């Protein structure tokens, strides 16, 4: 496998969050509407931030926002109302000033339901794109062993 020099796997950070499908997330067929999987990815990112000390509030308090510039989502199996599932969120380290997360959603039988990825960039308080890691983010990466 060819190594991607823009990514580094020296320390892998993950978070697992368990969620239950709510009635309002299902379509007339009784399965989760496809658009809700992106919301589940958000649940995974928020849980990751709480667990690893990189919440949206931390980012905002440092004077930055991190809009999503790319998202992918592949569906393999359906989820239904009342089922519980788990979201495994993995931070992908990059030398670039961005946040890359990969997601895997597993059903109650531990079968892969969905996988995807999001990429977020840093904008400063003026709305300008950051080409280098903001100081607070580099400090977080150093603390996590992701330098």
Automatic annotation (TrEMBL):
Signal peptide, first to last residue: none
InterPro entries reported for this sequence: 4-hydroxybenzoyl-CoA_TE, HB-CoA_thioesterase_AS, HotDog_dom_sf, YbgC/YbaW
SUPFAM superfamilies, sorted: Thioesterase/thiol ester dehydrase-isomerase (SSF54637)
Similarity comment: family membership: Belongs to the 4-hydroxybenzoyl-CoA thioesterase family.
UniProt protein name: 4-hydroxybenzoyl-CoA thioesterase
Species the sequence originates in: Chryseobacterium artocarpi
PANTHER family: 4-HYDROXYBENZOYL-COA THIOESTERASE FAMILY MEMBER, NOVEL THIOESTERASE SUPERFAMILY DOMAIN AND SAPOSIN A-TYPE DOMAIN CONTAINING PROTEIN (0610012H03RIK)
Keywords: Hydrolase
Molecular function terms from GO: fatty acyl-CoA hydrolase activity
């Amino acid at each position: 496998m060819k190594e991607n020099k823009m990514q580094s796997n020296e320390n892998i950070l993950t978070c697992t969050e368990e969620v239950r499908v709510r009635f309002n997330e299902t379509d007339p067929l009784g399965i989760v509407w496809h658009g809700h999987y992106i919301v589940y990815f958000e649940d995974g990112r928020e849980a990751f931030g709480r667990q690893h000390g990189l919440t949206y509030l931390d980012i905002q308090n440092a004077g930055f926002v991190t809009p999503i510039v790319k998202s992918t989502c592949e569906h393999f199996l359906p989820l239904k109302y009342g089922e519980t599932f788990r979201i495994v969120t993995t931070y992908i380290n990059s030398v670039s000033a961005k946040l890359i997360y990969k997601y895997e959603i597993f059903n109650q039988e531990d079968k892969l339901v969905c996988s995807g990825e999001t990429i977020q960039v840093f904008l400063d308080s003026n709305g300008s794109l950051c080409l280098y890691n903001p100081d607070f983010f580099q400090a977080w990466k150093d603390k996590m062993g992701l330098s």
